[in-house]
Amino acid sequence: MNPLISDFDLAVLSRMDHSIIGYGSFGFWTAYLKANGTTIWSKEMPGLQQVEYLNVPGTKWIGMDDPCVSLVDGKKVFSYEHNCQK
């Protein structure tokens, strides 16, 4: 990834009013650096189960259940490891 392009992308995405983020750190940081708006994230994302520290004034973080995560033998299995069906 070209550092200049990724810096530009980070700056532009952090200025958006709303975000839907996936399982990568790049999306997390674009959402976290926003001054306002709503971020939708998967409740299955590691490290984001305690979102109290994410409640920056002017922002709202909404955790949603991930339909592509299931329990197999007591372990969370993501869709890339298991068939994504409910």
Short structural description:
This protein is α/β, with parallel strands linked by helices and 86 residues long. It has one domain (3-78).
Descriptive overview:
By secondary structure, this protein is an alpha/beta fold. The protein has one domain. The chain has two helices and five strands, in the order αβαββββ. The strands form two sheets. A three-stranded parallel β-sheet has the order 1-2-3, with helices on one face. A two-stranded antiparallel sheet has the order 4-5. β1 (18-20), α2 (25-32) and β2 (37-42) form a beta-alpha-beta unit. α1 packs across α2. The longest helix has 12 residues, at 3-14.
Taking the alpha carbons of the first and last residues, their distance comes to: 35 Å
If helices are DSSP runs of H or I spanning 4 or more residues, what is the number of helices? Answer: 2
Beta-sheet strand percentage? 25-35%
Q: Count the strands?
A: 5
Identify the notable features of this structure and list them briefly:
single chain, 86 residues, alpha/beta, 3-stranded parallel sheet, 5 strands, 27% strand
Give the helices and strands, then pairings.
Blueprint: H1 3-14, E1 18-20, H2 25-32, E2 37-42, E3 59-64, E4 69-72, E5 75-78
Parallel strand pairs: 1-2, 2-3
Antiparallel strand pairs: 4-5
